[in-house]
Design a protein that fits this description.
Blueprint: H1 8-66, H2 71-102, E1 110-113, H3 114-128, E2 133-136, E3 146-149, H4 151-167, E4 174-182, E5 185-192, H5 224-234, E6 238-244, E7 248-256
Parallel strand pairs: 2-4
Antiparallel strand pairs: 1-3, 4-5, 5-7, 6-7
Helix pairs in contact: 1-2, 2-5, 3-4, 4-5
The structure holds adenosine-5'-diphosphate.
Residues 164-165, 167-168, 192, 194-195, 197, 205, 210-212, 215, 220-226, 249 line the site of adenosine-5'-diphosphate (ADP).
Length: 263
C-alpha cells in the first residue's frame, strides 16, 4: 500500500498494514515450505512402501502359479516374502518415530545412568553385529555419570549408529564403541572400518530417505540418521561425523552431562 495523502494517522495505518502483509507473506512461505516437505515425505514414504509390496505380490503370484511343482522356487519366494515384510516393518516403525517427531511429541525424561544405558546398548548391539567384530569400552563402569533424557530413545540413537557401522562394514571388519568424558559432556563414538562416506555426502546422509547409491542393496530405510538427529536435538546433543572413503567412519554423539549428580 502506498499513501501520499495528508494526515499522519493514515500514513501510520498504511505502514502497519504493510508490516502485517509482510508478516503474512512470511508465514505463508513457511507454511508452503512445510506443506511441500510433508508432501515430499508422503510421496517418498509411499514409494518406499510400494517397493517391498510389489516384490511380495510378485512372489505370491509366482507361488500360486508354480509353487507346488518347483520346491526351489517355493523356498526362494518364501524367503523373499519374509525379507520384504521385515523391511516393511522396519520402515513402518521408522515412519512412526518420525511422525511422532513431526507432531512435536515430547518424550518423557528422567535421570539416565550412562553405566546402565551403555550396558544395555552393548548387550543389544552384540546381537546385531553379525559377521562384524564389536569392541566396546564403557568407561562409566568404574565411575557412573548421568544425563537427563529418555533412556529408550538414547539407546535407539546409539544403536542406529552401531547398526549402520555393522551394515556398511565388510564381514571380518571391526566396529569400536568408545566412550569418553570431556568438558561436561559424554562422548560416545562409533568407529568403523567400513566403506566410508565421501565428503560431499556428509550433510545429506542426515536427510530423510537419503541413501548413498552403493547402500541401496543393503537393509535399511534411509531414515535411521534422520531419527538419530531428531533424538540428539531433543537431548541438546550433537552428532559429529568424520569419514574417509574406503577406510571407515566415526560418528560421535556429544551428550551434555547432568551436572548435579555424580556418583
Ligand atoms: P540407512 O537405513 O540407509 O542406513 P541412514 O539414514 O541410517 O539410512 O543412513 C543414510 C545413508 O548414510 C546410508 O544409506 C549410507 O549410505 C550412509 N551411512 C550411514 N552410516 C554409515 C557408515 N557407518 N558407513 C558408511 N555409510 C554410512
Amino acid at each position: 500500500i502506498k499513501y501520499d495523502g495528508p494526515g499522519d494517522e493514515l500514513a501510520r495505518l498504511a505502514e502497519t498494514i504493510n508490516a502485517m502483509l509482510e508478516r503474512l507473506n512470511f508465514a505463508y512461505q513457511k507454511l508452503d515450505q512445510s506443506y511441500r516437505s510433508q508432501k515430499r515425505f508422503l510421496a517418498d514414504a509411499s514409494h518406499e512402501l510400494r517397493t517391498p509390496l510389489t516384490i511380495i505380490r510378485g512372489n505370491i503370484e509366482l507361488l500360486q502359479q508354480m509353487g507346488d511343482a518347483e520346491p526351489e522356487i517355493r523356498t526362494e519366494a518364501l524367503a523373499d516374502i519374509s525379507e520384504e515384510s521385515r523391511r516393511m516393518s522396519w520402515l513402518v516403525e521408522d515412519l512412526l518415530s518420525l511422525a511422532r517427531a513431526d507432531a512435536g511429541q515430547k518424550m518423557s525424561e528422567e535421570l539416565v545412568s550412562l553405566r546402565e544405558l551403555l550396558a544395555d546398548v552393548i548387550h543389544r548391539a552384540e546381537k546385531l553385529a553379525g559377521p562384524v567384530n564389536l569392541e566396546a569400552t564403557n568407561i562409566f563402569v568404574s565411575e557412573d555419570n548421568y544425563v537427563y533424557g529418555n533412556k529408550e530413545y538414547l539407546a535407539k540413537l546409539i544403536l542406529i549408529l552401531l547398526d549402520n557401522a555393522f551394515k556398511y562394514t565388510e564381514p571380518g571388519g571391526s566396529v569400536l564403541l568408545k566412550t569418553e568424558l570431556a568438558d561436561k559432556e559424554a562422548c560416545i563414538a562409533v568407529i568403523d572400518t567400513g566403506t566410508g562416506i565421501a565428503e560431499e555426502n556428509l550433510e545429506q546422509i542426515f536427510e530423510r530417505f537419503y541413501r548413498i547409491d552403493q547402500s541401496r542393496g543393503s537393509r535399511g530405510t534411509g531414515l535411521g540418521l534422520s531419527i538419530a538427529r531428531w533424538i540428539a536435538e531433543q537431548h541438546d546433543a550433537r552428532i559429529e561425523v568424520k569419514s574417509t572413503l574406503g577406510q571407515g567412519s566415526e560418528f560421535t554423539v556429544r551428550l551434555p552431562l547432568h551436572e548435579n549428580i555424580k556418583n
